[in-house]
Write a structure and sequence with these properties.
Strand content: 5-15%
Number of helices: 15
Number of domains: 2
Largest sheet: 2 strands, antiparallel
Radius of gyration: 21 Å
Order of helices and strands: HEEHHHHEEHHEEHHHHHHEEHH
Number of strands: 8
Distance between the termini: 31 Å
Structural class: mainly alpha
Helix content: 55-70%
C-alpha cells in the first residue's frame, strides 16, 4: 500500500465519517439544546449548531488513519510529530468554538448570582471583581437567545492552540519576501508570528459567514487550493492535512447547503481556520496563503470599518431575496445582497468567486512563476 493509496483511503474515511455521522450529530445536538435560529428563513427555525464537532471527528479519523497506515505499510518518511501537532491544535480550537456554541449566557448567570448574594448579604469586593470579569468576557450574539464569548476572549483562548506547533518547530524561520529579500525571523516567528497567524486565520474564517453553506463552502475552496498547491510542490504533510479537511467539509455541505439542517457554529469556523493554518505552516506556504486569503483579508478590513459590530447576514424580503441591514458595506455579503439575490444565490456567488480567485492564484504561483514559493 503506497502513500498515495493511503491518502485516498484517508480522504474517503473522512468523507464517510461525516456523511454518515452528521444525521446522528443533528439529533444529538438538538436533544442537548445546542441549536441556533436560522436568521434568514421566514419562520426563523431552530437548527442544530456546532456542526464542527462532526467535521472534527471526520478529520481526526482520516488523519490518524493516514499516520497509522503510513507507519505500518510504507517506508515513506512523513513528519508524524507535525501531523500530531496539527491534530492537537485543531482539537483545542474546536473545543473553544464548542464553548461558544453551547450558548451559556454569562450575564444571566451573573444576574442570578448577584441576586442570590444580595439576598444572603455576603457580597464582597472579590465577588464584584469576579462578576465584572464575567460581564466583560460575555458577548451579545446575533441570535438574541444566544450569548457567547467575546472576540477578545476567544482570541486569548486560541493562543494555547499554537503551543503544539511551536513545540515541534513547525514552519520556517526564514522567509523570502518581495523587495525585502530573505528575512531571518529568529524567535520572532515561533513566539509572535505563528500565534498571531493562527489567531488571524481562525478569526478570518469565523467573520466571513452568515448564509447557509458559506463558511464550509469557503473553507472547502481554501483547503482544496492549499492541497493542490502542496501536492504540486511535494509537501506531503500539508497535502494530507488539506485534503482530509476538504473531504470532511464536502460531506458536511450535503447537510449544510441551503436549506441547512445543521449549522456550522464557531466549532467549525475555528476548527477549519486551525487546520488551514497548520497546512500553511506544514508546507511553508505563507506567501501563497497571503494571496489566497485576500477575500478574508478584505472581509477583515470591511468589518474593521464597523469596529467589528456589523453582521454579515441580511434581512429576508417578501420575495425571498436578502437585503443588508446597513447602508454601507461592512461585509463581502452586503454588495452581493444588494443585487437582489436569494440566500442560496448569495452563497453560490461568494463561493464561486472565491474558487475563481483561488484558481488564479494557483496559476500565478505554479505556472506563471509569480513570486515562486
Amino acid at each position: 500500500m503506497g502513500n498515495r493509496m493511503i491518502l485516498e483511503a484517508s480522504v474517503l474515511i473522512g468523507f464517510a465519517v461525516v456523511l454518515m455521522g452528521t444525521p446522528i450529530a443533528e439529533k444529538y445536538l438538538a436533544a442537548s439544546g445546542i441549536y441556533s435560529r436560522d436568521q434568514q428563513k421566514q419562520d426563523r427555525p431552530r437548527v442544530p449548531t456546532s456542526g464542527g464537532l462532526i467535521v472534527l471527528m471526520g478529520f481526526i479519523f482520516a488523519l490518524t488513519f493516514y499516520i497509522g497506515a503510513n507507519s505500518l505499510f510504507t517506508a515513506a518518511e512523513i513528519q508524524t510529530e507535525l501531523l500530531l501537532a496539527a491534530l492537537s491544535s485543531t482539537t483545542i480550537i474546536a473545543l473553544i468554538g464548542l464553548v461558544d456554541d453551547i450558548h451559556v449566557d454569562f450575564r444571566d448567570v451573573v444576574a442570578e448570582q448577584v441576586k442570590t448574594e444580595i439576598d444572603l448579604d455576603i457580597r464582597t469586593g472579590k465577588t464584584v471583581l469576579h462578576e465584572k470579569a464575567l460581564l466583560f468576557f460575555g458577548e451579545d450574539h446575533e441570535d438574541e437567545e444566544v450569548r457567547g464569548l467575546s472576540q477578545f476572549t476567544k482570541a486569548l483562548m486560541v493562543l494555547p492552540a499554537a503551543l503544539p506547533l511551536i513545540a515541534v518547530g513547525a514552519g520556517s524561520w526564514t522567509m523570502n519576501l518581495p523587495i525585502l529579500g530573505t528575512v531571518e525571523w529568529g524567535l520572532i516567528y515561533p513566539l509572535v508570528l505563528l500565534p498571531l497567524g493562527l489567531i488571524f486565520v481562525a478569526n478570518a474564517i469565523n467573520i466571513l459567514a452568515g448564509t447557509n453553506g458559506l463558511e464550509a463552502g469557503l473553507s472547502l475552496v481554501a483547503a482544496l487550493a492549499l492541497g493542490i498547491f502542496a501536492y504540486q510542490n511535494g509537501m506531503t504533510e500539508a497535502v494530507a492535512i488539506s485534503f482530509t479537511l476538504a473531504a470532511s467539509l464536502l460531506a458536511f455541505l450535503v447537510y449544510n447547503w441551503y436549506p441547512s439542517s445543521i449549522l456550522p457554529g464557531d466549532s467549525l469556523t475555528y476548527m477549519s481556520g486551525a487546520v488551514l493554518f497548520t497546512a500553511i505552516v506544514a508546507g511553508d506556504m505563507e506567501k501563497f496563503a497571503l494571496f489566497l486569503f485576500m477575500p478574508w483579508i478584505l472581509e477583515f478590513l470591511l468589518k474593521a470599518r464597523s469596529k467589528f459590530n456589523a453582521d454579515s447576514w441580511g434581512l429576508l424580503q417578501e420575495d425571498g431575496t436578502l437585503r443588508p441591514k446597513y447602508e454601507k458595506n461592512y461585509s463581502l455579503t452586503h454588495p452581493v445582497m444588494r443585487r437582489g439575490l436569494t440566500e442560496k444565490q448569495v452563497t453560490t456567488v461568494l463561493v464561486s468567486a472565491t474558487a475563481i480567485w483561488a484558481a488564479i492564484v494557483l496559476v500565478l504561483f505554479n505556472y506563471a512563476g509569480f513570486l515562486s514559493a
